[in-house]
Amino acid sequence: MEKIIFATGNEHKMVEIRMILEDLGMEILSQKEAGIKADVVEDGTSFEENALIKATEIAKVAADMPGYRNTVILADDSGLEIDYLNKEPGIYSARYMGEDTSYDIKNQTLIDRLDGVPDEQRTARFVCAIAAAFPDGSSEVVRGTMEGIIGYEIKGENGFGYDPIFFLPEYGCTSAQLSPEKKNELSHRGEGLRKMRVILEKKLESEK
Q1: Where are the domains of the chain?
Q2: Which among 33, 145, 165, 207 has the fewest CB atoms less than 10 Å away?
Q3: Which residue in 64, 76, 77, 83 is the catalytic one?
Q4: pTM
Q5: CB 4 within 8 A of CB 28
Q6: Angstrom distance (rounded) from CA 204 to CA 208
């Protein structure tokens, strides 16, 4: 394996991904940077299924492109589960209230839906499933989580998506108020990427 293509065009994600995987000795490209155009229908019923669907479909496209035949494709599916709301928005996190709806509106709506709900019932978690499709046709899926509660107001400029309402009681701040380094250490994506890194290291070792 010589390259990693991560199936996303999201630059926020790519910053986190490169911070954790950059010293593997492999070139890391986003799907956009690799020039891969594919609309994958993520119709799975779990984060893991959706991540694997995305990784395997992009791998099929990459396999037919010069220069990408010995490439591992990584893909993630992530979202927010709020226990009081029966784990909504869950796998529909990106599409909640419509993909074109701003996260300020989404976040305020979720806060409003929890109006009057006490801290102990505001439990929530970020979930990130990361799938790898390897050149030999094999695949792996891992899951990372970050536990917290839904805050009472939108706070913080460092994150994106639902970060400004995801409150971490032990740190006294939202995910969007953490430094990028601390967020990588604690985040669901960071945990998932570190688990996937172990798998990638073993694969690379077996190729020597």
Answers
A1: 3-207
A2: 207
A3: 77
A4: 0.90
A5: yes
A6: 7
